[in-house]
Amino acid sequence: MTDVVDIRAGRLDNETLAENFADVHQPYDKAGALVEANRCYFCFDAPCIAACPTGIDIPGFIRSIATGNLRGAAMTILEENILGGSCARVCPTEILCQGDCVRNGPGDRPVAIGLLQRHATDYLDGAAAHLFDRAAETGKSVAVVGAGPAGLACAHGLARQGHGVTMFEGRAKPGGLNEYGIAAYKVADDFAQAEVAFVAEVGGIEMRFGTTLGAEISLAQLRSEYDAVFLGLGQGAVRDVGLSGEDLDGVHNAVDYIAQLRQAADLSALAVGRRIVVIGGGNTAIDIAVQTKRLGADDVTLVYRRGPEQMGATGHEQEFAQTNGVRIKHWLRPVRLQGEGDVRAAIFQTVELGADGTLADTGGEQSLPCDMVFKAVGQTFVPITDDGPALADGRIAVDESGQTSLPDVWAGGDCVAGEDLTVQAVQDGKIAARSIDGYLKNSGS
C-alpha cells in the first residue's frame, strides 16, 4: 500500500495546465485543408457516407472545400448533422468514415475527414447569419426532455419546421455529454456552449434548466401540455463495480469527476491523487485516465479485465492514452479495494479466456498501490416510473422512427438501444424530428 495518501490541488502551475488542456486537435489552415481535400477521390457510392451514422455527403463537402466554398461545405454537413462541429472533434472517425476510406491501402492513409469537417464547420465562427431558416409558426408545441446531442438535434429539426420547442434540462447548462462528459481537451474553449448557441439561433427554442423528469415535471404532465414529447434522457445511473471497499475515501465515479473537471473555473484548484487506478475499458476510462495524468498525477494505471481487442475504447484512444503516460494493464479482474478510511490499494485477480469464452481465474493476484480509484465500467438508464414507455433490454423501446409505445412520445440517444456515440444520438434526434413533424401535420388543429 502507499505510505501516505497524497490527494491535493495545484500539482501543476496554471500555465502547464492550460497547455495540457488546450485543444488536442491541430486544425487545418486554408492551405492545409486544400491539400488534404484534393487527396479525396470523390468516390461514387462512397463507402465513407455509408459509414457515417448521419449520412453526411462526405465527398460533397470535401469537394466544396477544394473549390473554396466553405459555406457550402458547412451546409452539406449541417443539413445532416447539426452538431457536425462537435462530431468532427469527438467521433471515432478511425472506425467510422475514415475507417472505410478507400485510401486505407498499403503505403497510403485515409483522407482526414474529421479534420476537414472541423475546418468546414469552424467557418461558422465568422458567418454573418444563421445558415437555416425557420418556417412559419404552426401553433404546435413539442417538449424535448434532455438538452444533449439527441435533444438538440430533435429541437433544431422541429424548430426549422415552425413548431414551438421547449427543452427541459436537469443540469445548469445544455450540451449533455459534450458539455459534461467528454475530455476537456477534445472540446476546448467552451465549444459545446458555442455550438448550442448556434443551434438555438434558428429560433423557436426555449430552454428550461434545473428541471428533471420525475421531479419537477412528469411525463403525464408534458403529454397533457404539449402536442408531442421527445425523450433524450441519456443514461443517468453509474454502475458500481461491486467490490468491498468502494465506500473508501478516494474512490470516485469517473463521470462525476469529469463533469467536475469540465465545469472547473480553475483547474489548479481540482484535487488529484499521486497514484491513480482506473477500472474500465471504454472511452470514459481513457478520458479520466488521461485527464488525471494531465492534472499532474505521477502514476496512472488503467486496468481492464479482458484484452485490448475487447476494450470499448478504440485502438486510437488506447494509443493516445499510452502516449500520454497512462499504463494499460489487461486480463486483470478487480476483486477488492483496500485501505483504512482512505483507499490505499486496488487488488486484481489475473484471468484468462476459458474454452467456453468466459473469464477464468489463473490463481494469481496483483496489488496496485493508489490513493485514488476511478470506476468507469459503464452507465445505465433510469426507467421512468410515471407511466413511461415500454422498455427493451433496459432502455426505451423505439421503432425505426424513434416512436415509443406511447403514440405521442419519441426517444433517442443513449436512453435507447444502439451505439452510444454522439453522432448516433444526433441521428436519432434528426429522425425523430422528421417523424414528429409528420405526426403534428397529420394530427389536425
Task: Work out the strand percent.
Answer: 15-25%
CATH class of the largest domain: Alpha Beta
Reported by name, the CATH topology of the largest domain is FAD/NAD(P)-binding domain
The separation of the N and C termini measures: 69 Å
Please mark out the parts with pLDDT under 50 across 5 or more consecutive residues, or reply none: none
State the share of residues found in helices, binned by percent.
25-40%
- Describe the sheet with the most strands: 5 strands, parallel
In DSSP terms (H or I, runs of 4 or more residues), the helix count works out at: 15
- The computed structural class is alpha/beta
* Order of strands in the sheet with most strands: 4-3-2-5-19
Q: How many distinct folded domains?
A: 3
Which outline best applies?
Answer: globular
CATH superfamily of the largest domain: FAD/NAD(P)-binding domain
User: Could you tell me the number of beta strands?
Assistant: 19
Kindly summarize this structure in a few lines:
With 445 residues, this protein is of the alpha/beta class. The chain is 32% helix and 20% strand. A five-stranded parallel sheet has the order 4-3-2-5-19, with helices on both faces. It has a five-stranded parallel sheet with strand order 7-15-9-10-11. Strands 12-13-14 form a three-stranded antiparallel sheet, with no helix packed on it.
Distinctive features:
445 residues; alpha/beta; FAD/NAD(P)-binding domain; Fumarate Reductase Iron-sulfur Protein, Chain B, domain 2; five-stranded parallel β-sheet; 15 helices; 19 strands; globular
